[in-house]
Design goal:
There is one protein chain. The chain contains 7 helices and 9 strands, in the order ααβαβαββββαβαβαβ. Strand 1, helix 3 and strand 2 form a beta-alpha-beta unit. The longest helix has 11 residues.
């Protein structure tokens, strides 16, 4: 997650990773994770994800972190929200209702920034990390999450030599290696979605699998 790459991606509107609908796997699996309705939910590298709107509608207090000020501004503007803005250590915090977005670098987060968080939703953060950054990301993520918390993680797996990330290919074996020290890992489902992703198929991929996990902090 090189900072300049992501800042430039938003400026140049290279945001094919943004989904214009609520993620169907979030709708399917979140209700079974046992997250209390009033619990805080952390969304790393949140962009302008509509999934935050859905999580807030379930009663959760949502805390996203996003490095691009443009992405954060677009999230609130496109959802007709007028956020209150304040400075907090290391970040600009934008708040509207149940949703807060911390504009700054994920690696500058501390446990204090995520007070009250009991769950996390990672659809776009781990898969945005090149291989060399994933151990650092997973270790910092573990430090931020409280014992007993649960994370809903979505990954992609495909022949990495057939397409340059992001999103990067992250296998189930790598998820195990990155998280097993601090989390109990459960694979919830595996879906081959190549036929439903024509833009990906057009790039010559021979396989494109999505896997969903529940990570429960020890």
């Amino acid at each position: 997650m090189e900072e300049e790459f992501w800042l430039e991606s938003w400026v140049q509107n290279r945001t094919g990773f943004h989904q214009t609908k609520i993620n169907p796997y979030l709708l399917k699996f979140w209700p079974d994770l046992g997250v209390e309705p009033e619990a805080g939910v952390f969304v790393p590298l949140c962009g302008k994800s509509l999934d935050m709107i859905w999580l807030a509608e379930q009663g959760h207090r949502v805390i996203g972190v996003e490095i691009s000020p443009l992405a954060a501004a677009q999230f609130f503007a496109e959802n007709d929200l007028s956020p209150f803005q304040e400075a907090v250590p290391g970040f600009t915090r934008l708040v509207s209702g149940r949703i807060a977005v911390l504009n700054g670098n994920f690696f500058d987060l501390s446990e204090a920034h995520l007070a009250g968080v009991a769950a996390a939703y990672d659809r776009a953060a781990l898969v945005a990390m090149p291989p060399g950054m994933r151990p650092k990301y997973a270790a910092h993520f573990a430090r931020l999450m409280a014992p007993g918390s649960v994370t809903f993680l979505i990954t992609f797996h495909y022949p990495q030599d057939q397409m340059a990330g992001p999103p990067f290919s992250v296998s189930a074996q790598e998820v195990q290696a990155l998280y097993e020290e601090n989390f109990v890992i459960e694979s919830l489902a595996v879906r081959d979605i190549l036929a439903k992703a024509p833009r990906i198929a057009d790039r010559g991929l021979t396989g494109f699998v999505q896997e969903m996990f529940a990570l429960r902090r020890r």
